Amino acid sequence: MSKLILTRHGYSLWNAANKFTGWVDVPLSERGRAEAMIAACKIDDEQIKIDVCFTSLLIRALETAIICLTECEGVRNGKIPIIQHDINDPDWHGWNKYQGNPDEELPIFPSAALDERYYGDLQGLNKAETIEKFGAAQVQEWRRSYYTRPPGGESLEDTVKRVSVFYESKILPYIEQGNHILIAAHGNSLRSLMMQLENLTPEQVPSLELVTGVPIVYNLDEKGTVTSKKILI
Q1: SS3 21
Q2: Any idea which fold 2-231 has?
Q3: Catalytic residue among 9, 71, 154, 186
Q4: Are 31 and 16 in contact (CB under 8 A)?
Q5: Options 35, 63, 116, 154, the catalytic residue
Q6: What would the pLDDT profile of 156-175 be if each residue is shown by its tens digit?
Q7: Which of 44, 81, 129, 209 might form a disulfide with 69, Cβ 3.0–4.6 angstroms?
Q8: Is 116 noted as a catalytic residue in this protein?
């Protein structure tokens, strides 16, 4: 039996500014760091020992993952979290060739496949001002329609496609081995995962609300089928 913990990153500085963020690399706010610490304590209260972690490449997700894995020693089962960089990335000067020690270290795998939905031309715009300019109905369609792309950006359908491929190829093998997995990512990349885990329809996915810093725990069998779900409020 494997546990899969999904955690939307803590409140970012652009959440506080009410801006469309997407792929803009904005860090957590003080509130966001506190949310990540609380998330760690909630996971620890459940006595879950994380074996492996996946995050997006964006700093707000990485910060959340690192705080979750360092705030409470029990969550990481006494191991040291190590970020495993892409072996094909030429900018890491050989660090990415370190294979690690599974008895002492907990790998964190960052991937662009788990990045937030790309909001294109909306990125950096204030949401309230965008509603005033284009109307609430149009902005809601850009934000929550499954098929509609914002100008220059991704639809939720596009996000689901890249997340699903990553889940099947990279995450599911760890589930089949019975590992406990933490995923720190974003509202839309996590909606995409939940669609697959819960067999949701395109009509159901956009209405999913994910609170920043609140872990969702799935119990899965060796085939990756969900047997139960618990939100750690």
Answers
A1: coil
A2: Rossmann fold (3.40.50)
A3: 9
A4: yes
A5: 116
A6: 999 999 999 999 999 999 99
A7: 81
A8: yes
